[in-house]
Amino acid sequence: MSSTIVLFVDYYNLSVNLRKTGSVSISKVVLDIVEENIRQDYRRVLVRFYGGWYIKNILTIDAQRLSAEISAEFPVAHVMNSNKMIVDCELALTLRSDMKRHIWHTMRKHRMPTGLFSLGQEDIGCDKGNCIASSFKKLLETGVCPIEGCTTKVNQILGKDEQKLVDAMIASDMIHCMITGEKEIVLVSSDDDFFPAIQLLVQNGVKLIQVNTKRRNRDPRDYYPDLPDNYLITNIYRRST
C-alpha cells in the first residue's frame, strides 16, 4: 500500500483570497479538510498545482513566483491525528507518467472573446459628459474605435489569457494513479469537466475525495446518482472566501 497520497489542485479554480495566502497555507487548509476521510498512516503528501504555467515554452510570471516560493518553503511537516507527514509541493509541468517531457503552451493569449456586451451611458443613468460607457458600447457593437479618423479595432485592445490542456493533464494524472495502484486521491476543483474521469476512477475502486472550491447550483451526484460510496465531496469555499 502506498505511503504517499497525491493532492491534485486546480490552482486557478481556487479563490483569489486563498491563492494569496501562499502554497503552504493552501496545502494545510486542504489537508485539514480531508483528514477525516483519508488513511491515517501516510508518510508523505505530494501537492501538485495545475495551471497554465507556460506561454509557448516560457514559464509565466505566476509560475516563476510559485516555483521560487515552493523551493523556499517546502518540504514541510504536517501532523494529522498524531501522525507526522512530510508535505512536498510541485508545479505540474509534466504528466506523472512522463516526467521528462514538459507540456508547453498551457496558457494562450486570445483576442476579444465573443458574446461580450456593454451598456451605454443612458442605460446606466450616468449624466457625466466625459463618461466612456457609450463610446465603449459602440466599440463593442461596431468592432472599431468610434472616434473619427481612428482605425483601431476592438480585438487590438481587448483579449484574455486562457488555459489549455490543464483539465486533461489532471484527468490523465488521476488515471495514471489508478493504473499504478493508488487507492486514494484528492481532487481540489469544482470543474464539471472532471466528472467522466471521476466516474471511471471510483467505478474502478479508487477512493476519490473531491474538494469543491466554489458554490454550485447542482451537486455532482445529480449527474451521476449511482456513484459508489468511495466518491466523497467536501467544500473549501467556506474557509477561503
Topology diagram in text:
Blueprint: E1 4-10, H1 16-20, H2 23-34, E2 44-50, E3 54-55, E4 58-59, H3 61-73, E5 76-80, E6 83-91, E7 94-95, E8 98-102, E9 107-111, H4 121-124, H5 133-142, H6 154-157, E10 159-163, H7 166-179, E11 184-188, H8 195-203, E12 207-212, H9 220-223, E13 231-235, H10 237-240
Parallel strand pairs: 1-2, 1-11, 2-6, 11-12, 12-13
Antiparallel strand pairs: 3-4, 5-6, 7-8, 9-10
Helix pairs in contact: 7-8
Tell me what the structure shows.
- The chain has 241 residues and is an alpha/beta fold.
- It folds into two domains: 4-108 and 162-240, Rossmann fold (3-Layer(aba) Sandwich); 117-157, no CATH class.
- Helix content is 33%, strand content 27%.
- The chain has a seven-stranded mixed β-sheet with strand order 5-6-2-1-11-12-13, with helices on both faces. Strands 3-4 form a two-stranded antiparallel ribbon.
- A hairpin with a 2-residue loop joins strand 7 (94-95) and strand 8.
- The longest helix has 14 residues, at 166-179.
- The mean pLDDT is 90.
* Gyration radius, rounded: 22 Å
Number of helices: 10
Task: Please identify the structural class as seen in this structure.
Answer: alpha/beta
Q: Going across the major beta sheet, what is the strand order?
A: 5-6-2-1-11-12-13
**Cα distance spanning the termini:** 36 Å
Number of domains: 2
CATH class of the largest domain: Alpha Beta
- Average pLDDT across residues? 90
Number of strands: 13
Shape: elongated
**Amount of beta strand:** 25-35%
Characterize the largest beta sheet: strand count, sense, and whether it forms a barrel. Answer: 7 strands, mixed
Which architecture of the largest domain would the CATH scheme give at its second level? 3-Layer(aba) Sandwich
CATH level 3 topology of the largest domain: Rossmann fold
Uncertain runs are none
SSE succession: EHHEEEHEEEEEHHHEHEHEHEH
Helix share of residues? Answer: 25-40%
